[in-house]
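User: Teach me something about this protein's shape.
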Amino acid sequence: MCLLVRHFSRFEPPFTIASNSLLHYDTAGPDQFGLLSYSVARALLIDTDTASDDAVALIMALRFPEVRVVAITTVAGNVGVQQATRNALYTVELCGANVPVYAGAEKPLLRAHQSATWFHGRDGFGDHNYPPPHQSPGKLHAVEAIIEVIEANPGVVLVTLAPLTNLALALAKKPSIAAKVGRCVVMGGAPCCEGNVTPAAEYNIWVDPEAARTVLLSGLPVELIGWQLSRGDAVLHKDDIAHIQGFNNELARFAVECNSRARQAYMEQTGEDGISLPDPIAMSIALDPSVGTQWSAHYVDVETHSELTRGMTVVDRLSVADDDRNKAVWTPVLDKARKAKVCWTIDTKRWKETLLSALN
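Assistant: First, the predicted structure itself:
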């Protein structure tokens, strides 16, 4: 027997809850774990430590008509993994979507977990006391889900909005999945610029630098979307925020409200007033690569030993890694890694149009 479930968006197809309580779209058949398989061009897999900007990125993906989000996996980062999972489920329900969410790693590979609740609030959503979601996470561990999704959807677009712990564990368990990913869009790093959690490092990479290095050495087709792309004209300023609030709908209100603490923290951190959204910018590029306007391919390594520069994304921008004076240090990267595509600039007008379209 199937029970009809209310759906909130006219953009989403109807869905059902089957008698085994595994969610699935009417337009695709799940396997025994509830994972969906779609055509390559439409399949998206998202790994997230769901806090305020992650939620906006999820809304963008769930509302984008040309893709289907096959699964969402969660990991400890901005908040603990249980809170990240709750937040992801809440966001999926808010969109009226039906996508399985799988909880993953509770801590980095080798280090203690250090959250970013100082930036996003204790619950990651600015502490507005949103109600708990109705649905529960899937039975699979996120690492298993990542492997299952990639193997079932060759060419899948993998979008990481969080520390890379889950993905590193999946690669350690099944290295062959790297060759089956079409694109791996990584929101992380501070290529050739200052970091946002230390002078040298961006938060997602800093939290679990060993995992980030594993991913960069894995052979995955990484597209590195650094946090600096969310600054300057890319920030949602007062006029942008007023425009979104003018939509006067639940998604738009939530997108602004859940980022209220993040807006304050960004002001404290940079002196700039506005909402900086690194995860949604990465998602906009995942959905439409032409949002990125300047790219180049380089070897990238991550600092894992120094506390001063822990998590620094070191980009071989001048292609000197294989010089005699550098080769000994860079040999692991030169031998194992493929070059990452690094995004240096974006079309800020196009990025904001993608966001507005999702929220309106």
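Now, about its shape. The chain has one domain: 34-359. Residues 1-29, 36-41 have pLDDT under 50 and may be disordered. If you'd like, I can walk through any region in more detail.
User: That's plenty for now, thanks!
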